[in-house]
Amino acid sequence: MTRTEEPTAGPDTAPASVQPREISLGLAAKTAADRAARRAQVAGAALLFVVICVIGLGIWSVVTADQGADGLAPTPGATWNQLVTILSDPFYVSGPASVGIFWHLVASLQRVLTGFLIAAAIAIPLGFLLGSATRIRWAVEPFVQVLRPVSPLAWLPLGLALLRDAENTAIFVIVMASLWPMLLNTIEGVQKVDPLYMQLARTLEASRAQVIRTIQLPAALPSILTGLRLSLSTAWLVIIAAEMLVGSRGMGYFVWNQWNRLSVPAILVAILLIGAVGFALDRLVVWGATKIPHG
Hints:
about 80% helix, flat, single chain
């Protein structure tokens, strides 16, 4: 009597129909857990931020508690009143230099962006050249190493002597402040390109423009972005000091003017606005870099 063997499911038969569903459920559960952990982290950070603000305001209030109405140290209440006053009418214009805070910000941003773009137009192409040509880089490097530690404000008298114009001198100082971080980071990024890719490009007889567009630029982009961020933050720092000396309108002029009036709370408000604008500029550079096509 022949015994008929019942078909048995192989080890892969049932799991093959179940595993994808299990994997999908597992991934969904992991994603939900990650989102919950992320929300908990954000909530914890927000709570900690509020606690730090409350503690900071408390310390600030205690430290400035003995300041009278004529005290130089800004109290939280006086600073808040100045903030409300400054922001209540930011667009007024009653004279060439007697303007609202908005126009001071616009003047500073115009100088910074003009100098920053001029520096980028010089530094990035030059960085590609120096990063690719070793002999030229070695010839130019002594000049770069000598000039880059010089404080940007040290160029101010030279700019006034050469340009004989306060506005152009402020832009010149921004160019000198922005140039070096962009140049050095671009050189570094180009030098990090894998030699194998460059050899492959030569084998394929790619043009110089194709090599830059498809190999060097994507590889060097993170370093270039770092240079742009450093340059922009440095330019924003320098313009405040430069405008104290040469500006007739701008955030530096506003700070110096408020100091002459001994209005320290207004200076503190300006510092907060300068920091907020600097942060926004940094985010703008990062956002712009994400829009650049890679290779």
